[in-house]
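re: ur question from earlier - yeah i can do the single chain one, its not a big deal. heres the input i used so u can compare w yours
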Amino acid sequence: MVIAVSNPGLLAIRVAVALVGLLIVVQTFMSAVKTVVVPRAGTALITRGVFRTVRWTIDVLVPKKASFETKDRWYSIHAPVAFLLLPVAWLISCGIGFGFVYWSLSVDHGFGALRSSFLTSGSSMLTLGVFFQRDLPSASLEFAQATLGLILVAMLISYLPTIYGAFSRRETLVAMLESRAGTPPSPFEALTRFQAIGAMDRLDEDLFTRWEPWFAEVEESHLSFPGLVFFRSPHMERSWITAAGTVLDLAALRISVVDLPSTGRAALCLRQGYLALRRIANYFEIENPQNPSPTDPISVTRREFDLMLVELRAAGVSLKVDEERAWMDFVGWRVNYDASLVGLCKLIHAPPGRWSSDRV
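and the output i got, formated as tokens:
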């Protein structure tokens, strides 16, 4: 095949179209690699576009005044549908990119050549072999495109078990929290239950030693695979983010309010937790202070805090005497995760949770 070069303007157009096509293919492949292979947070344009499009569609379809049950049913399909559409978006994008390249190599430059180029691209991407070119440059591209299509599909097939494995590990402790903090979970319910069964001295070992590695794994998995943020729990009233907020509030209350000897477990878990939520919130561009002051305002009011002290005291929980100091200590801890917690609750339409999603 020989491309006519007598028309410099047409040659420039062909080169520009070929470059645009190659750019689309490269961007698509890099989007897939960042989504599936690279174990760190990265901006994958196509992946983010698919998730936002599905989310926008659900936002349009669901009435604003719909019940939470209705909204939960709709938003529960957000992440699964987006993941199913990802390979479709990758294949279509690659097909368009290669179609431009085929057209730039064709002798003809009319509508017929454009149609033939995209038919060849689609046939090669899906390895159908229905439409093909006999010249060596185009045939080489067809083999490369077919190989790339198989790689993209294989990447997603290997991706899904990893996603659901991380989801299953995340939900195990979320489900176990129900027996300790109720449904929806509440840090006050947890304290009163531990007090009722005489296990306050085991609070640190039972909860914080388990949840510290949970926060570390959630940070790693939800930054490597950000779509996990939108996977909802099997139970409508459970959520990974309200569970995280409950444990963080429980740790903050354990340090600032509960009159027990310190073991350091609560503080370590709390720090691991607010760092995890802060980094996940940063990825989704949720505004939250990176180095907050202990005196910065939080979404929990002093009146709510005082009423909580009344509840705990009535349940027989041993509390520290200096309530003013307890409030200042609680604020000093809560300010580290307040904005990121509330922002993530809003992002995923979390179910009702005390001092977390009820702030939205």
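Residues 1-5 have pLDDT under 50 and may be disordered. not sure if urs matches, ping me
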